[in-house]
Design a protein that fits this description.
8-stranded parallel sheet; alpha/beta; binds pyridoxal-5'-phosphate; 9 helices; 237 residues
């Protein structure tokens, strides 16, 4: 790890927080209303911890194996660790004790397993429901038209609490197209909040990544997940 990388992260972090503040203000909110979660896949724990020392307080991994291999090295005294990737039921047990939130729940089966493993360790785990807002085939997330039914079923399950929604919209070639998906997500988020389902709260709308977090905030995101803009292009080994 080089000194230059750490300096870059400092520079990027400052820039991102400034843009978040600007977008928050434009959407009638404050910087504090938006959570910046760093997507830390492929990033070395030392670099992640450097970002935490700058004030970053939410990190998200998207692979169980990687999370486990880095877990002991994260400086989690001042940061919350979340799971943001596709989660297989048989791996739930390995992470429920380590994370504060799982963002990618899209089935009763997965929710049931998270519940079972959380209850076993006396924990109540917060989750988000992932929505396949672009209705893309072969992509995770519940279809928007099935969201309410899924929420009704999941809300009956002990040991987990729904805190909001998450989405990864289709790759778009312009910011108007992507904003449309963010807008649709925000509408769903508001619709569901107004239904006041038992045991379901809509506090978190997690959407927007490096290329489009600004647009996502303008459309109502309360959490953005930023990787490469903060840590530089990913190098897969
Ligand atoms: C990697 C990742 C991100 C961040 O992607 P960048 O384009 O590098 O900002 C956000 N969300 C999820 C679920 C990811 O896996």
């Amino acid at each position: 790890m080089t000194e230059k990388l750490l300096t870059d992260v400092e520079y990027n972090y400052k820039l991102i927080t400034e843009r978040i503040a600007e977008a928050a203000e434009k959407s009638g909110r404050k910087y504090e209303d938006i959570t910046l979660l760093a997507a830390t896949k492929t990033v070395a724990p030392e670099v992640i911890n450097h970002a935490i020392s700058l004030g970053l307080d939410h990190i998200g991994e998207n692979k169980v194996q990687e999370l486990l291999s880095k877990y002991d090295k994260y400086d989690l005294d001042n940061a919350s660790l979340q799971f943001i990737g596709h989660l297989q039921t048989n791996k739930v047990r390995q992470i429920v004790d380590k994370v504060n939130l799982i963002q990618s729940v899209d089935s009763v089966k997965l929710a049931t397993e998270i519940s079972k493993q959380s209850l076993k360790i006396g924990k109540n785990l917060d989750i988000l429901i992932e929505v396949n807002i672009g209705k893309e085939e072969n992509k995770s997330g519940v279809m928007p038209e099935n969201l309410e039914e899924l929420l009704c079923e999941i809300s009956k399950i002990d040991g987990i609490s729904v805190k909001g929604l998450m989405a990864i919209p289709p790759i778009c070639d312009n910011s108007q197209k992507i904003s449309r998906y963010f807008h649709k997500m925000h509408n769903l988020f508001i619709d569901i909040s107004q239904k006041k389902l038992d045991n379901v709260s809509m506090n978190i709308l997690s959407m927007g990544m490096s290329a489009d977090y600004y647009e996502a905030i303008l459309e109502g995101a309360t959490m953005v997940r930023v990787g490469s803009s903060l840590f530089g292009a990913r190098i897969y080994k």
